[in-house]
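Justification of resources, computational component.

The compute hours requested in this renewal are based largely on the per-chain cost of generating structure records like the one below. Each record pairs the submitted sequence with a full C-alpha cell output. That output is archived, and it is also reused by downstream analysis tasks.
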Amino acid sequence: WKGRLKTASFLQRIGVLDPEASAMCVFCHEGLESVFHLLIWCPFAWRIWCDLLQWWGLTWVIPQTVEGILNWWRGFKWRNNLNMIWRIIPFAVLWSLWKFRNEKVFCERLMHLEELCELIKTRIALWAKFYIQDCCYSVQQIICNIQEIRVGYGLYAGMLLVV
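The structure output for this chain reads:
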C-alpha cells in the first residue's frame, strides 16, 4: 500500500531495467506495470476483485489506491469469525496477484482467471482456519458457502446444514 513493490516501471525508473525493456503489465499488456495498475486498475486484477466481492455477495466501486482498498475494507463490521475472514480477503488478493505476477515473469506460469480466483478463495479459507482459533467452518464450507455463512442462512449451532 506504500507503493514500494518492485514493478517493471519502478525498476526502469531506478535504472535496474534497461530503458528498452518492456515495462508493460504482464497480465493485460496494455498499461504500464505500476503498483496501482498491477494490483487494482489492470482489467485482470479488476476482475479478480469483482469475483471475490461477488463471492462475498457484494458489489462495489473500487478505490483508486491500495490504501483506499484497505481503508474501505476496514469500514465493514461483521460478526466475529466473519470479520476475521473479511479482513483476510484484501491481503490474500494482493499477495496472490503479486505472487502470480512473479511466477508469470520468472517461470512463465500460465493461469486462467477462474483458477486464480479459486486459489485465492482456498488461501482465504486456509488462512482463516489457521488464524481463527474457534473457526467452526471447514475450508470447504468457507469456499463454497461464504454467502450463506455471511447472512446466517443454513446455520445451526455453528454447523452449516446441507439440504
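DSSP finds seven helices and two strands in the chain. The longest helix spans residues 80-107.
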